[in-house]
Amino acid sequence: MNNREISVLIMQSINDFTNLIKVLNQERHKLDDILTDKQFVALGSMMNYDKIELKNLSRDLHVSTSSLCILMNKLVDQGYVYREEDTKDRRNTFYGLTKEGRNMLDIEIEKFLSIIDKRIETLDEGEKSRLFDAVSEANSIMKDFI
């Protein structure tokens, strides 16, 4: 297999994965439309930190700080995120999840996992095993790839 074939396969996989996420999010929104897709992703990324600077979160999410700032302001207004100025350097602002934000994120993650679980239930044991192995291997390689 040459590099071009791998590149084409990765491109096709990205498209398939993006479509899967869209379908899963549509199902999540049917259950209860609380968080937008972007809010869900931002909160999910934030759960890895006690608090994080906007520029670092922007880097993690691969979005501009200006568009992320708008999103964060909305999450602050909704009570899911708190904003804190750096006492040492007022130019820096930190963001973190509030208790309500963590609770909301837990609910949304559980909802998302439940939707995925229902899809996986349609597979037989061999398909489940192959899927687990394939996704585990792909994740392992992609972490090094990124």
What does this structure look like?
This protein is mainly α. It is built from six helices and three strands. It is globular. Strands 1-3-2 form a three-stranded antiparallel sheet. Helix 1 (3-31) packs across helix 5. The longest helix is centred in the N-terminal third of the chain and has 29 residues, at 3-31. It has helices at 3-31, 37-46, 54-61, 65-78, 99-121, 125-145, and strands at 52-53, 81-85, 93-97. The protein has a single domain (29-145), classed as Winged helix-like DNA-binding domain superfamily/Winged helix DNA-binding domain (Arc Repressor Mutant, subunit A, Orthogonal Bundle), CATH 1.10.10.10.
Q: Radius of gyration, rounded?
A: 18 Å
Global structural class: mainly alpha
Distance between the termini: 21 Å
Q: Write down how many β-strands occur, each being a DSSP E stretch of 2 or more residues.
A: 3
List keywords for this structure.
146 residues, mainly alpha, Arc Repressor Mutant, subunit A
Outline of the structure:
The protein has 146 residues and is mostly helical. It has helices spanning 3-31, 37-46, 54-61, 65-78, 99-121, 125-145, and strands at residues 52-53, 81-85, 93-97. The chain is built from 6 helices and 3 strands, in the order ααβααββαα.
How are the elements arranged and paired?
Blueprint: H1 3-31, H2 37-46, E1 52-53, H3 54-61, H4 65-78, E2 81-85, E3 93-97, H5 99-121, H6 125-145
Antiparallel strand pairs: 1-3, 2-3
